[in-house]
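Hi V.,

Quick status before I head out on leave. The structure for the redesign project is tokenized and pasted below; the design run finished overnight.
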């Protein structure tokens, strides 16, 4: 499995969205139950600001996966996981410097 090795320029935003089934009853009562064995998937919003050639390499890595193939990513201080990147945005910041923002979503295969 390919490994994403670049470190984000800025602090990343980590979001955890538990998978929960909710049954609603009358008068505002509800019952909640975890769904599946991997109930708390991680999602990272990452930002990179690098020389254009390095952003080209990151862009090429993400394009090669095409939101289909998962890759290994280890965020600083966290355990490694399998992720996909379904969307990323590239910006031209200055002469020779580009930016790239991406969201990595944890998957289980």
């Amino acid at each position: 499995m390919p490994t994403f090795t670049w470190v984000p320029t800025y602090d990343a935003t980590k979001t955890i969205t538990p998978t929960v089934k909710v049954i609603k009853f009358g008068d505002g009562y509800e019952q909640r139950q975890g769904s599946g064995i991997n109930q708390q998937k991680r999602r990272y919003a990452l930002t990179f600001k690098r020389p254009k050639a390095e952003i080209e390499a990151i862009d090429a890595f993400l394009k090669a996966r095409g939101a289909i193939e998962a890759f290994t990513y280890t965020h600083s201080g966290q355990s490694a996981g399998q992720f996909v990147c379904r969307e990323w945005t590239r910006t031209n910041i200055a002469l020779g410097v580009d930016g790239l923002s991406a969201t990595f979503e944890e998957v289980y295969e």
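Above is the designed sequence. DSSP finds one helix and seven strands in the chain.

G. will cover questions while I'm gone.

Best,
W.
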